[in-house]
Amino acid sequence: MGVCENLIGGAWVGGNEAAPNVNPSNTDDVIGEYTRGDASAVDAAVEAAQAAQPGWALASPQVRHDVLEKVGADLMARREELGQLLSREEGKTLAEGIGEATRAAQIFKFFAGETLRLGGEAIASVRPGIEVMIEREPVGIVGLITPWNFPIAIPAWKITPALAYGNAVILKPADLTPGCAWELARSLKAAGCPDGVFNLVMGRGSTVGARMVEHPGIDAISFTGSVPVGRGIVVGCATHGKKVQTEMGGKNPMVVLDDADLDTAVSVSANGAFFSTGQRCTASSRLIVTEGIHDAFVEKLTAEAAALKVGDALDPATQIGPVVDQSQLDQNLSYVALAKAEGCEVSGGGRANGPGFFQHPAVFTGATNQMRSSREEIFGPCASVIKAADYDEALAMANDTEFGLSSGICTSSLKYASHFRRHAEAGMVMVNLPTAGVDYHVPFGGCKGSSYGAREQGAYAREFYTTVKTSYIAPWNPIPASGLSPPQRSTKTAHLT
Ligand code: NAD
Fold first, then answer.
1. 6-248+447-471 maps to which CATH number?
2. Cβ–ligand 1 contact at 210 (below 6 Å)
3. pLDDT at residue 491 above 60?
């Protein structure tokens, strides 16, 4: 297999450099070589996008619908093959990989429908005889910068509203996981997406991503990734006058109350903390447990975590795949050491044998909410268990964080569930459900340090990918100051009413 190249203006274009895409389950397995573009590739993609975008924006929504629908059908038909590629390049288990590929297909199909649902408003003017119209228009050229941990779903949930609402796109996927993004590009091209409307520029964040932020031809940037990079992108976009949206980190709490069902609480917590190897921005990394259930919860959770099978992502028996790469594994192991140094009792968390970056899930018991291991995002299969005296203290601890993405509670009390739903400082609240795992047709995003700008996904995505135009329309023959007399009712109407 040759080098997988960038897609610019409808043509596959190589670069001066290519990088191997390595399987984190087995570092001897190289999935392929992928072009690493540079700033000049971004410049070429912007030129192609500028030439193509006006035609795409003016095309019938049916044209945009058909392209997105075709890609959705293609991804759905190939979900097993794509899921396998995803698991091979990112390390999610095969079931999780196929699930994510299926999700990407569903997102394309959802936004195919949204192309036909974009409406405007007609509203009465305060001035007589004038009509006011409020309509949405594309933003223009949109740059999408995505992370490695959802290599097909996150690109899909940014590409689809961008294209549905008439924008042209330049996608820069994470350097670690270019394979799924390249498959999306191939599918869009095969579905007849016009040349230049969708462009793929793979490469490093420091070159390709940075050029996208500063390029005057890009009107908006949608970013998902880490907090430091996201904050830099917000500043860069403000400097260059671009619209920006960033989805960043989390340190998501799962509150477990005395009245919770123990089995549900443990299974929800283990799922939220350890599945997808804990590499989810919505992972439950702080388990805040009230005194009455604490000891039973810890005993059951540590047993469940120890029983999870860690191994090759493609092995059907595997429940926890590898960490994505050596530097992420080193970071996770350093937090295990930190939690011990901070006084936690640590169960699991060591390196697991094998030809990849394997790690056993870790439970940090005896943690406090002030410890660094309880405050900083680890992004691995590690969870702190923090004891709380009662619901009030648990809620206060849940909110005592710089982040605000997802927040969960396990309880059988409607009173506490309702109170928590209202008072949790988070963009998403889960009751008796893991903090991770969301629907694709409703808004996704957080508050505080987790997110900046408009929400993603569902119909709310239009806030970012469109701009609002207000038009005032007066008749060509001015209306006399006294106004017009109202039309007479017809006799037929009068009869009917
Ligand atoms: P990252 O910030 O290192 O990289 C994200 C993307 O930004 C990559 O494509 C990278 O190449 C690019 N980038 C890096 N430096 C750049 C620069 N200077 N200018 C422009 N682009 C640059 O994040 P990651 O390691 O790929 O992903 C993990 C992080 O993503 C975690 O912090 C996780 O919480 C977060 N995440 C958040 C969400 C969410 O919706 N809130 C979802 C998934 C992941």
1. 3.40.605.10
2. yes
3. no
